[in-house]
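Hi R.,

Here's the chain you asked about this morning:
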Amino acid sequence: MDRPVPFSYKLTPEWKTHKKCQAWGWTTFGVGSAMMIVGFMGDFIDNWERPTPRNRFKILGFTGVALTAASVPLFVFSIKNKNKARSISMGTGTLAAPLRNGSGMAYTTGMSIGISF
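And here is the predicted structure, written out as tokens:
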């Protein structure tokens, strides 16, 4: 017997937006952290014994700080979309009911809607 695939909250557009924002958030966090570490460590090493400081690596470090800070709104937006996707769910399935004369079962498709607050 073929059963329809149940509709999951993971198939909603909100869940897809959640996954995209989560991926972008982790990417910006990782790249920003690496840029920040390399920039500030490079600046420290470059100016270790130099009487006049050079600011070659500071721009890399501050750009890394900005990217790391930019990941926070992406994570917040991801969580909001995740909660939206979970609050509305729909499902389909096959319902079985015995026939009156007891000779078998009658099958029909049913649908359910779930809303949680």
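One quick note: The mean pLDDT is 83.

Cheers,
M.
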